[in-house]
Amino acid sequence: MSSKEQTQLLDAVACGVMRFRKEGATGDFICNYANEEAEKVLGDATGKSWTALSGAYSLPIRFGNETLNFPNGKIYQVVKQQIDEKEFLFTLLDISSENRVSREIEDFLFIASHDLQEPLRKIISFGERIERNKASLGEENSLYLTRMLGATGRMQNMLGGLLSFSRIGQGGEVWAECDLSEIVQEAFLEASQGYQTVPAKFSVGRLPTIEGHKNHLLQLFKELFLNALKFQHREIVPEITVTSEVDLLDKTVVLRITDNGIGFGSEHAERIFLLFHRLNGRTEFDGTGIGLAVCKKIVEKHSGEIKAYSAVGKGSTFLVTLPLTQSKSSL
């Protein structure tokens, strides 16, 4: 979330506010202000009064801009602003209803994409049986059959992508230590198996171990590498580089994934992460327009951020910021 977006939220939404200021000889951050709504939010979450808890409220200073799931079913977005080196401001935004709508949409996508698979498989199966007798169909009908099978194949890929998208964050996997070096290497091997072109040049620096969902992180990097391999100049050897920079103060790692592909206009830098958004026609490059939306969702489920930078014909750079550890409230 950008500082501009944070300011807009603060201006537009009535919410709980806490202010922490560094005080005393120890230099601890003490909560020297909390409005009534913030006191009620934290009191309801812990089952204790503000008076009983106020002395321990240096804890939220460790929070970033993340989502907190409280036992009472409430979900809050934490917006953290650093006023100066001695003062922090935290804003609690109630997004419970927004989160419920998001879950309903994801449930719909899961049901729709899952239940449509069976009739589609039958169409493909019958089409393939007809194709065995293609010689007797005539030139025109054979062309129609080829187009039909091509369309059903694309639809099958799209439904598979939607199913994968809807399953992210649905549970079943626990937070664990993940060696990003191993995950990135495995993701590249899986991505490169689908391309029988000139072997890509792949370079990866030293990457840290973080807390996350291994399968989701594997999927994240696989999608990014598939994107780099797919949108590539003809007759040019693909080059992909992965480096990282750890911020121990902020407890995050910024991963930089660069390629020498066809690139895209900077005006598309945010829209490429939208579901079904495509910049190129199917005749140029295959794809469903789901891969980068999956990446964004995985990163956000890890309380992280993903950005893209590019220019037409100049390759692309993706910056993925992830926390080194996950707060208990996000588990």
Automatic annotation (TrEMBL):
<dbReference type="InterPro" id="IPR003594">
    <property type="entry name" value="HATPase_dom"/>
</dbReference>
<keyword id="KW-0597">Phosphoprotein</keyword>
<dbReference type="InterPro" id="IPR036890">
    <property type="entry name" value="HATPase_C_sf"/>
</dbReference>
<dbReference type="InterPro" id="IPR050351">
    <property type="entry name" value="BphY/WalK/GraS-like"/>
</dbReference>
<feature type="domain" description="Histidine kinase">
    <location>
        <begin position="111"/>
        <end position="326"/>
    </location>
</feature>
<keyword id="KW-0808">Transferase</keyword>
<dbReference type="InterPro" id="IPR036097">
    <property type="entry name" value="HisK_dim/P_sf"/>
</dbReference>
<keyword id="KW-0418">Kinase</keyword>
<dbReference type="Pfam" id="PF02518">
    <property type="entry name" value="HATPase_c"/>
</dbReference>
<dbReference type="InterPro" id="IPR004358">
    <property type="entry name" value="Sig_transdc_His_kin-like_C"/>
</dbReference>
<dbReference type="InterPro" id="IPR003661">
    <property type="entry name" value="HisK_dim/P_dom"/>
</dbReference>
<dbReference type="Pfam" id="PF00512">
    <property type="entry name" value="HisKA"/>
</dbReference>
<protein>
    <recommendedName>
        <fullName>histidine kinase</fullName>
        <ecNumber>2.7.13.3</ecNumber>
    </recommendedName>
</protein>
<dbReference type="InterPro" id="IPR005467">
    <property type="entry name" value="His_kinase_dom"/>
</dbReference>
